[in-house]
Amino acid sequence: MDDNVGTGGHVPVMLERVLELLAPALAGPAPVVVDANLGLGGHSEALLAAHPALHLIGIDRDPFAIEFSTRRLSPYADRTTLVHASSGDLAEVLDQAGRPVIDGALFDLGVSSPQLDEAERGFAYSYDAPLDMRMDTSQELTAERVVNTYPARELARILRDYGEERFAQRVAGLIIRERAKEAITSTKRLADIVRDAIPAATRRTGGNPAKRTFQALRIEVNAELSALEAALPAALDALTLGGRVVVLSYHSLEDRLTKQALTARTKDTGPPGLPVPLPAHQPRFRLLTRGAELPSDEELARNPRAASARLRAAERIRVDD
Ligand SMILES: C[S@@+](CC[C@H](N)C(=O)[O-])C[C@H]1O[C@@H](n2cnc3c(N)ncnc32)[C@H](O)[C@@H]1O
Q1: Pocket test for ligand 1, best of 10, 60, 132, 310 (most atoms within 8 A of CB)
Q2: Which residues, judged by CB distance below 6 Å to any ligand atom, belong to the binding site of ligand 1?
Q3: Residue 130 β-bridge partners
Q4: How far is the CA of 256 from the centre of ligand 1 (A)?
Q5: For residue 263, which of 219, 294, 232 has the smallest C-alpha distance?
Q6: pLDDT (tens place) for every residue of the chain, 321 residues total
Q7: Exposure pattern of 108-117 as b/e (b: 16+ CB <10 Å)?
């Protein structure tokens, strides 16, 4: 991301709805919000503009996202703390920022437009580039390492679980055969291998067959699900009474984890049949969305990348004594 990129036509997903859902929680005299996926800072900028007293803590594991957002949000520099970290370390980030209690949290999961569009980062099957896919370019594990060193069973599991690839075994099998001839180092070679592994009849439907494998590798390289498993509960625990969380997810595994984390906290956990519900068992949160909300047709026409977005939100209605 350089200065010339601007915001690259990037449109924050479901922006109006995100602002609307968070607004009641950010109406106090000195509200604090965490943007756990700062990216290009689009949602953050809108939140800072809408709430003049807001302090925003922005987290991203991609150093380029931090660099870019630091410039973009410079008019609000005195009200922002931007941190290069994984959201998996959210509790530590809040502690270090001296703000262990927050009023709002936003998760806009997945990859950013520049990560997809900058060919050399190796996220996209549509460009030929080194097989990288690291959001945090200082970490060691790359997609190349996964593809060339993981055992067949582990590869197949990743492709099936993270990519929902029906032909996970076949794709993993062909990867193992091909890498024995020569290390697989480019996105194009991997995309060709995936295409060859998928039966011809299936190839004709459902878009580029490499999509699922690339998604799976990206999730593995960046440990995306374990980060979410740590980050979302940490954010929920940090929310004050009346505090709100909004989560935008882009594939079913993220959405499932989100749904589980939210519904677990919106249920009465007491034994059934108690005459008086015990406070300790009463729900700490209420859902603000019915199921998952989807972007409008009008938004999809403007921003095709919003296509897979699912939004869920909740509000803290009880704090532990
Ligand atoms: C969809 S983009 C966010 C876009 C942002 N809301 C905006 O309006 O510009 C997702 C961002 O989350 C970051 N990310 C993904 N997983 C992360 C994690 N575990 N910790 C911190 N950042 C993460 C990515 O690097 C990417 O920049």
Answers
A1: 60
A2: 12, 37, 39-43, 59-62, 65, 86-88, 108, 110, 112, 135, 222, 224, 227
A3: 186
A4: 18
A5: 232
A6: 333 334 545 789 999 999 999 999 999 999 999 999 999 999 999 999 999 999 999 999 999 999 999 999 999 999 999 999 999 999 999 999 999 999 999 999 988 888 888 888 888 888 899 999 999 999 999 999 999 999 999 999 999 999 999 999 999 999 999 999 999 999 999 999 999 999 887 766 667 889 999 999 999 999 999 999 999 999 999 999 999 999 999 989 999 999 999 999 998 877 777 777 777 788 999 999 999 999 999 999 999 889 999 999 999 999 976
A7: bbbbbbbbbb
